[in-house]
Amino acid sequence: MENKSKKRSGSFVNCVAIDRNDNNRQSILPHIHENRLELFYVCSGNGQYMVDNRYYPIGEGDIVICNQGVLHGEEPEQVRQIRSYSVALTGVQVEGLPPNCLIAAGEYPVVSCGQLAAQVGETMRLLYLLSADTDNLGAVCSSLAEAMLNLTDALLCSRVQQRENDGSQIPSVLAHRVRRFLDSHHREPITLRMVAEQLRVSEYYLAHVFKQEFGVPPMQYVMKRRIGEAQGILMHTETPIAEIADTLGFSSICHFNAMFKKYTGTPPGRFRQSFRQSMTHTEENKNP
Fold first, then answer.
1. Measured between alpha carbons, how far is 81 from 105 in angstroms, rounded to an integer?
2. Pfam families of this UniProt entry (predicted)?
């Protein structure tokens, strides 16, 4: 990567900690942030993390850069051994890049902290603890978050170009057309036949090309998008479950409940309750 002068700024949004036990009940499936940059830091463990439909190996001391508008997330069975912190910033502007983006599209999104891993982990932990009182400590949180942003950028600029391209092939134009269509219509009650008719290809060929490119059948991709979005709504809003099911294109609340449990291991109501209990427990630990 060519080093170039960059102008950065950013405001702290939040910081989340996820330990091994949390992962078992609330792993976050692929999702998109429309107005923020996320830095996902691995405190311990190893696994894989998906960014823009490609999986990358991650381990202790790694930072995963998740630009605004880029699909990212985790597979529950692959990340249960990981402890992590995730810090989100908004208002980030790097010269030559879209808002809230730290790397160019297609650039390798994982950077290792190397010998700084322990210090970065402590900084993330401090940021997480301070974020419990943003009313009084918001400015401190923003300063620490921006320090993490600048450190990540410095690591990007200094790392040796040691990454290989994983033997990746030239992306299939059709597969990416399909993905763009699915991303635009994943909330609608679409079927494989509808997608194939829209793009004027056979269902078999469409499914084959898509899975070859992205490693997952197209309708399973749609379902993971829906479930990932549902998780965010359940965690951060009071929206009734029936309304979530309808909004995300499920045929019924029973279908939504069944699919949610299939992909996360728990029904949506219990997922919301478990998340709130874990947040309450976290707040109690912060304020003994």
1. 29
2. AraC_binding (PF02311), HTH_18 (PF12833)
